[in-house]
Design brief:
homodimer, alpha+beta, Pnp Oxidase, Chain A, seven-stranded antiparallel beta sheet, four-stranded antiparallel beta sheet, 12 strands, about 20% helix
Chain lengths: ~220, ~220
């Protein structure tokens, strides 16, 4: 399945880096730990980083009942959400052709509030598993009071595009002779060894999904 | 210096995590490799990831002349820009208190176009050095034609706030007895060894600022 190209989602700068197929887009959303949500109030744009997870064809966000962002989404306003994976610095011989390797997605949509407790619990499970696969089975699950204090919204992914760059720099032909190092500095979001809570009871080992964490 | 707290920049959710001093805010902007810029056109929000650098009290962005984002900024519209550093997953005993450790900033402002070539060159130097400190001295600098093809804008940081979380989870008192591992999984944006361009001439070693890269 491909998302339709419209003025809203079309990749304009360097269009050959644009991709519109659902599989590519969903894989980037799923790998990204967090997203950045943009919304506008009376022409003033705002952008907020937040945890997300994908549940089927919807994007799940959650937070406290008082959250301005969530109230805005609940009121039916449009949002745009970016997911960005940095894969490396691209060091060309020239400043002009220096760049980054990345996989990024921008989606557009409007949200609905999850009202039913079973649907909210399912969404919270997906959010928890998005952070650390295996955690939902181990952690103490939300109480009815905690569930009531939490707003969960699902944003239908109406429109989306991905933009990707990979590989070595592309220099001007005459620059390849310059005595300047060129190549890629790979980057990745890396996990260090888990740090136990100072109040952790003795004899509880860090779970496997944290010791060998990767996205 | 502290940024004034207004309805636009005040941290509303968990206000004790909010900070408004310039030193904290600038340090986060400088450490972040990229930012996410939000803008709105006829009520439709957009968000775009891009490279940035700070030059004094202004945020520098650049791109091709045809960039929609840059044209929008050049027209004097307000933008909001987020900078987000992920420091760890916070695994509480309960799903409800699970969180992230992070240092984030959101700024608000409007941009101006850098017109003079010397000011554009100074801004491109800051952008290049933001990516890799030492690169501007080594790489082939922009030609007049390349400079002309590049738009550079400077956004005055009118308003800003930081939001930070650090440290172990904060669980409910009765949950500390649960046999569930709790703590922090530290995260960092890590660089792997530099990968030379397949077309790199022999005898050019990777520079020190890439071999021991860290932000």
């Amino acid at each position: 399945m491909e998302f339709e190209q419209t003025p809203r989602n079309r990749v304009r700068r360097i269009p050959q880096r644009g991709q519109y197929d659902q599989a590519t887009i969903y894989a980037i959303i799923d790998e990204a730990l967090i997203c950045h949500v943009a919304f506008a109030v009376d022409g003033q744009p705002f952008v907020i980083p937040t945890l997300h997870a994908r549940m089927g064809d919807e994007l799940i966000l959650h937070g406290a009942k008082a959250s301005r962002l969530l109230k805005h989404i609940q009121a039916g306003h449009p949002v745009s959400v970016a997911f960005t994976l940095l894969d490396g610095l691209v060091l060309a011989r020239s400043v002009f052709h220096s760049s980054m390797n990345y996989r990024s997605v921008v989606i557009f949509g409007r949200g609905r509030t999850l009202e039913a407790n079973d649907e909210k619990m399912a969404a919270l499970a997906v959010l928890t598993e998005h952070l650390a696969h295996g955690r939902w089975q181990e952690a103490r699950l939300p109480t009815p009071q905690e569930l009531d204090a939490t707003t969960v919204v699902a944003i239908a992914i109406e429109s989306a595009s991905a933009k990707l760059r990979s590989g070595p720099p592309n220099d001007e032909a005459e620059d390849y002779a310059l005595p300047v190092w060129a190549g890629v500095l790979p980057l990745q979001l890396a996990a260090l060894p888990p740090v136990p809570d100072p109040q952790l009871a003795s004899g509880i080992a860090a779970p496997e999904y944290l010791v060998h964490y990767h996205r």
